[in-house]
Write a structure and sequence with these properties.
With 160 residues, this protein is an alpha+beta fold. It has five helices and four strands. The chain has a domain of 111 residues: Nuclear Transport Factor 2, Chain: A (Roll), CATH 3.10.450. The protein has a four-stranded antiparallel β-sheet.
């Protein structure tokens, strides 16, 4: 190795690089190519049920990755807050579905949301969904961005 470094310091041009016969990728394929992405409706169904105040929070626990019975009250509050603010019914459109580059088997989608407010509110948000035996659930990471689970609510405060 020392000799190689010494040779590079000479005035003669370095030898041509050997052709690269191996191509590597830093992103592994998270799902087999034969595995189809879920239909957008499967993801939209999760969001419709999460935002529906008629669905009890206890029944929403299975819609959020790693949620427990302790999260049921926060899930109830989410639907109630949407209703109280005149946002319901929400309209969801899931577009640009792709496999997650960080979590094998997860799906990332851009979700366009339209509220029922007058005038309607509209926003887009990237959301990640994890597979479960009978469908899909919102990842806890995404749920933490959208919902107030009371985790660390006092740890962060707006800047003065």
């Amino acid at each position: 190795m020392v000799a190689a470094f010494g040779l590079c310091g000479c005035d003669s041009p370095p030898p041509p690089a050997a052709p690269d016969t191996e191509t590597t990728s830093t992103v592994a394929s998270p799902a087999p190519a034969a595995t189809p992405l879920p239909p957008p409706e499967a993801l939209i169904d999760v969001l419709n049920r999460l935002s529906d105040p008629a669905v009890p929070g206890a029944d929403k626990v299975g819609l959020v990755e790693l949620a427990t019975a302790d999260d049921a009250a926060a899930l109830d509050t989410f639907g109630k807050a949407l209703a109280d603010n005149g946002a319901l019914p929400l309209t969801f459109e899931a577009v640009d579905l792709r496999w997650s580059e960080t979590e094998a088997g997860n799906v990332v989608a851009t979700v366009n949301v339209t509220t029922a407010n007058k005038p309607p509110g509209q926003f887009s948000f990237p959301m990640e969904f994890a597979p479960v035996a009978n469908g899909w659930e919102l990842t806890r990471k995404t749920a933490n961005l959208l919902l107030d689970f009371g985790e660390g609510a006092t740890a962060t405060s707006p800047p003065p």
